[in-house]
Amino acid sequence: MSIVKRNNLFFPSLMNDFISPDWFGGTDKWTNTSMPAVNIKENTEGFELELAVPGMKKDDFTVEIDNDVLTISSEVNTENEEKEDNYTRKEFSFTSFKRAFTLPETVDGSKIDAKYEDGILKLTLPKKQEALPKPKRMIEIG
């Protein structure tokens, strides 16, 4: 898996993607491509994106950042040919998807981390230091 930074692309914002009909996975009616389900969680340190993409390898994914747009994509081709006696059976499949998210200004794009384990691609998007909550401060009364 590689994280690449590119320039000059336009995609919907994180919130627009959150309310789109394909948010929970399923098939895009226009392209007939399968979209993985995505969970987005925010915590005090940042955001976590989890994509349900079972049966793949970490090298099957490309993660790119371009102008504060995070794009996650995959394209896998498989082919199997079996020859026995008087017949030949050849099977093949093609699977691809592409998801894009506009990063909030609070995310530090240079520190994004990605891991693939047990069919879940998990990205950690830490917040910039200035966006982290400030600790409570006791003021002494004089």
Short characterization:
The chain has one helix at 14-19; strands spanning 2-6, 26-27, 34-35, 38-42, 46-52, 61-66, 69-84, 87-102, 113-117, 120-126. It has 142 residues and is mostly beta strands.
Keywords for this structure?
mainly beta; four-stranded mixed sheet; four-stranded antiparallel sheet; 1 helix; 10 strands; HSP20-like_chaperone; Small_HSP; Hsp20/alpha crystallin family protein; A-crystallin/Hsp20_dom
Textual characterization of the structure:
Residues 29-142 form the SHSP domain. This is Hsp20/alpha crystallin family protein. Pfam families: HSP20. InterPro entries: A-crystallin/Hsp20_dom, HSP20-like_chaperone, Small_HSP. There is one protein chain. This protein has 142 residues and is mostly beta strands. The protein has a single domain (2-131), classed as Immunoglobulin-like, CATH 2.60.40.790. 4% of the residues lie in helices and 50% in strands. It is built from one helix and ten strands. It has one helix at residues 14-19; strands at 2-6, 26-27, 34-35, 38-42, 46-52, 61-66, 69-84, 87-102, 113-117, 120-126. Strand 9 (113-117) and strand 10 (120-126) form a beta hairpin. The N and C termini lie far apart (58 Å). Mean pLDDT is 79; it is low at 7-25 and 28-32.
